[in-house]
Amino acid sequence: MGAPVVRAERHFAGASRHAWSLDVGAGEQARAVFLLCDKADGNGSARDAAVLRALADTPVPVPEVVAFDQEQSALLLERIPGRSDFPAVDRESEREPTARHLMELTGKLHALDVKSLEIPHLTLPSRPEDCARTSLAQARAAQQTLGSAADPFFGFALDWLEDHVPKDVSRYSLVHSDMGPGNFLFEAGRVTGIVDWEVAHYGDPMEDLAAIAVRDMVTPVGHLPTRFQEYFESTGCAVDLARVHYYRALVLVRNSLMIGLGLAHPPLGFDVVEMTMYQTLLTRAAALVLCDNLAIDRPSSGASLPRADVEAPLEEMRGPFLATLRRDLVQTVSPGLDDPEAARGCARVERGLEFLEHEHRVGTDLDRRENEDLAALLGRGDRSHPESERALRAVIAEAGVRELDRVPFAHYFARRFHRLAERRRPLMGALLDRLPQALENQ
């Protein structure tokens, strides 16, 4: 840029790319920019740059591409005004207008004529079914790579998703594919820019509404039927709830499996604690949303867990040992750390120890309830827990749930992941009770 970097601040959000806010130059040369760099081999920043350049002269606000370096996978962007932590706002009165503006801009994105966009790495689907096929292929490949490390739920869910691929689409649009809070900046009730286009593609616009519904669990955007009505009013395009339901399940299953790949072989810097939390949240949501797709009631967490009075006494466990380690970490080690990254690592270890302590306390009774549930589903109560797990995998992989009544299996998996969330309660924190919103008008 022809000027020195005078300030550099590291950002820790995002799983696939490193990020920094930079101030370059001083006085008349001063410029605020944002630097992104891929963490691993890949072309995420290259894809992002191509889409941003194509959108530069459209009604969709995006940051200007200042420079891109293919060799370093480094993308330098104009730093646009605004904050990225929605639903937090400067003033309460700004929350609803910001969410409404997001829906309007999502509609403007989908209204763009894809033939006028020059994005070399993207091609139009050959037929409507292809809008879901790429994500399905990614999910199935991840499941096969994980092998026995993938929960049997994923085989069940992918069979259903492959059997119910949408065979129609209102139009082909440029789809962000990860639309929602965290991927836009806002100020004074308006969205100032939409960012992170590395997985954008041409497809069904209903996928973006599904992505907003997925992100809503962590970063709420308000009443989803209201948001969808705002989308319709700004575009005139009807919202096909059946397709939104489908894509929400597909996104949840795919993303859960992709996180699973990272957890199976975590690279350096991979936040195992946070990613385990997110995978638990998404997998439970996938099971509940699959119930929605089957038009059956979602099982509640209360109906899925053991009785509240069966928790093992603390003195009979490793609990005191783990609790002491956690206390030493929090009270002695962490206060002495000046390095922010080391402090973050310390916090992760603390949550991990708390999880192990909790899991040891409740795990036996959760396993007992799980085995009872599996016995009822499979029709045999004389198996051990590992034997029941193997039998479940065999039913799905060999007999195929396509030949069975899917309803009891869907109900079972929803209860299974309510129990998993309880097992991981210390990791889940405030997200323990965050469930996917109903999409129908209420």
Tag the structure with descriptive keywords.
single chain, 442 residues, alpha+beta, Phosphorylase Kinase, domain 1, Aminoglycoside 3'-phosphotransferase, Chain: A, domain 2, 3 domains, two-stranded antiparallel ribbon, 13 helices, 49% helix, globular
Short description:
The protein is of the alpha+beta class and 442 residues long. It has helices at 44-55, 95-111, 130-146, 152-163, 206-215, 224-235, 241-264, 272-293, 319-333, 340-378, 385-399, 406-423, 425-428, and strands spanning 5-11, 17-24, 31-38, 65-69, 74-78, 173-175, 184-187, 190-194, 201-203. The radius of gyration is 23 Å and the shape is globular.
Summarize the structure in words:
By secondary structure, the protein is of the alpha+beta class. It folds into three domains: 5-78, Phosphorylase Kinase, domain 1; 92-265, Aminoglycoside 3'-phosphotransferase, Chain: A, domain 2, CATH 3.90.1200.10; 314-426, no CATH class. The protein contains 13 helices and nine strands. The chain has helices at residues 44-55, 95-111, 130-146, 152-163, 206-215, 224-235, 241-264, 272-293, 319-333, 340-378, 385-399, 406-423, 425-428; strands at residues 5-11, 17-24, 31-38, 65-69, 74-78, 173-175, 184-187, 190-194, 201-203. The mean pLDDT is 90.
